[in-house]
Amino acid sequence: MLEAAGIKPSEVVFIQNGGVGESMAALMGGRVDVAMIGYPFGLTAKKAGFNLLFRPSDTEYGLFPTAVIAARESWVRNARNRKVAIDFLRALNEGQQLARDNAMVSKRALGKYTRVSDDALLQGSFEFYKSAFSSTLKVTEKEMANALKFIEHPKAKQADPKQFYDNSLVDEAMKSF
Fold first, then answer.
1. CA-CA distance, 101 to 95, in Å (whole number)?
2. At 119, is the secondary structure helix, strand, or coil?
3. Cis ω for the linkage preceding 40 (within 30 of 0)
4. pLDDT in tens, the chain (177 residues)
5. Peptide bond before residue 9 is cis, with ω within 30 degrees of 0
6. Closest alpha carbon to 95 in 138, 137, 150
7. Do 93 and 137 form a contact (C-beta atoms < 8 A)?
8. Which of 20, 102, 125, 174 qualifies as a cystine partner to 39, CB 3.0-4.6 A?
């Protein structure tokens, strides 16, 4: 996030506050100038006069730059396992579509797992996150190149991003979707 804004980590002081609630309290109490807080808490901060400074999904890094789904080639070569992988990808795609397109389902899940019942906060959270869910499960070369930037191995900087992903299972899963 700092890199996206042209800021070096050495130019800021990091303070561990605990969870989102504690970070929100530190922000509201004036103990920190900036805090990482997710929605629906971001709406509360906005109502209190704080500004959104960074939205990962609007950058080249995406919302979850380190999230991966991986399987060994030897495992996927087995026809039964391949079917499991394809079915998983179809279900994941369907879940992403629901999260992106169905406010009622998304708000129900958000309410359950955030323990928030305020419909305005849940709707605001849905609106904030719906564009963060990609319309495809495919990995792009640019995304992988960005992910390699975060690996502290000397060979990562010179590695060919194409060697680290394979969209063939996604292609197969989406053919019959």
1. 10
2. helix
3. yes
4. 777 778 888 999 999 888 888 999 999 999 999 998 877 788 888 889 998 887 776 766 655 555 678 899 999 999 999 999 999 999 999 998 888 999 999 999 989 988 889 999 899 889 888 877 778 888 888 888 878 887 889 898 899 999 988 899 999 999 866
5. no
6. 137
7. yes
8. 125
Query: In the chain, what are the domain boundaries?
Result: 1-54
Q: Name which of 131, 130, 135 is nearest 177 in CA terms.
A: 135
Reading the block at residue 76, the tokens are 């996927």
Residue 33 token pair? 């100038």
Structure-token pair, residue 43: 């709406």
Place of tokens 């900036």: 34
Measured CA to CA in angstroms, residue 127 lies from 123, 132, 134, 140 at distances of 6, 10, 14, 25
The Cα–Cα gap between 146 and 140 comes to 10
User: Do residues 170 and 89 make contact, with C-beta atoms less than 8 angstroms apart?
Assistant: yes
Side-chain-facing half-sphere of 75: CA atoms under 13 Å: 8
